[in-house]
UniProtKB/TrEMBL annotation:
<keyword id="KW-0489">Methyltransferase</keyword>
<keyword id="KW-0949">S-adenosyl-L-methionine</keyword>
<dbReference type="GO" id="GO:0005737">
    <property type="term" value="C:cytoplasm"/>
</dbReference>
<protein>
    <recommendedName>
        <fullName>Ribosomal RNA small subunit methyltransferase I</fullName>
        <ecNumber>2.1.1.198</ecNumber>
    </recommendedName>
</protein>
<keyword id="KW-0808">Transferase</keyword>
<dbReference type="InterPro" id="IPR014776">
    <property type="entry name" value="4pyrrole_Mease_sub2"/>
</dbReference>
<comment type="similarity">
    <text>Belongs to the methyltransferase superfamily. RsmI family.</text>
</comment>
<dbReference type="InterPro" id="IPR018063">
    <property type="entry name" value="SAM_MeTrfase_RsmI_CS"/>
</dbReference>
<dbReference type="InterPro" id="IPR000878">
    <property type="entry name" value="4pyrrol_Mease"/>
</dbReference>
<dbReference type="InterPro" id="IPR008189">
    <property type="entry name" value="rRNA_ssu_MeTfrase_I"/>
</dbReference>
<keyword id="KW-0963">Cytoplasm</keyword>
<dbReference type="GO" id="GO:0070677">
    <property type="term" value="F:rRNA (cytosine-2'-O-)-methyltransferase activity"/>
</dbReference>
<feature type="domain" description="Tetrapyrrole methylase">
    <location>
        <begin position="8"/>
        <end position="206"/>
    </location>
</feature>
<dbReference type="Pfam" id="PF00590">
    <property type="entry name" value="TP_methylase"/>
</dbReference>
<keyword id="KW-0698">rRNA processing</keyword>
<dbReference type="InterPro" id="IPR035996">
    <property type="entry name" value="4pyrrol_Methylase_sf"/>
</dbReference>
<comment type="function">
    <text>Catalyzes the 2'-O-methylation of the ribose of cytidine 1402 (C1402) in 16S rRNA.</text>
</comment>
Amino acid sequence: MAEKESGKIYVVATPIGNLQDITFRAVEVLNNVDFIVCEDTRVSGILLSHYGIEKKLKVLNARNESRTTDEIIEEVKSGKDCALISDAGTPLISDPGSRLINKAVAEDINVAPVPGPSALTAALSVSGLPSSSFVFDGFLPQKKGRQKKLEQLSRESRTIVLYESTYRIEKLLKELSVYMPERTVVVCRELTKKFEDVWRGKPSELLEELPSKNTKGEFVVIISPLEWTDHDYSES
């Protein structure tokens, strides 16, 4: 008897806020796979319920990734297709899953992207800052190595993109006012959601405005390149 062909892993981008920001193909894939791998069943359940998708869910997060990866790989090798999703946006962009995909590649399992929303590209698209070349550093270290990373970024000649949480956005702006006081900073909060905000200014200016702002939610922080000003754009 011939050995059963392995299944496929689809890496599926899901909305970062507005549930309508999902592709037709993503909905089709989620409907057709045998099971879905997600970070949190409660979060993903809202999206799946909205589109009437009922599938077996398997949790993969930073705490159990090492243990759960082998279980998922075995199911896929038995012929089952699965979709990997994150709580929001494109999986593996500052989200768990890299161990799973790395092992799938090593096992010659077909891994297919189903592209779509990403907070990273959404923020860049509305920032007004150069986006032809940029560096994405995700979340900065919370303690050890944070100051060293900020010193390195202060010498960066490209646009810088960071993620930050509601608990540390004020701390980050204070740090930027020390390490990069003259840079233009764009802070995007809760993109695509009902109360999305985009703030622009020097770090000190944004700190002055902060008390009047709603600082709950997830943030994308974009920092202009070294020695760049908005006057650098000229008519061709």
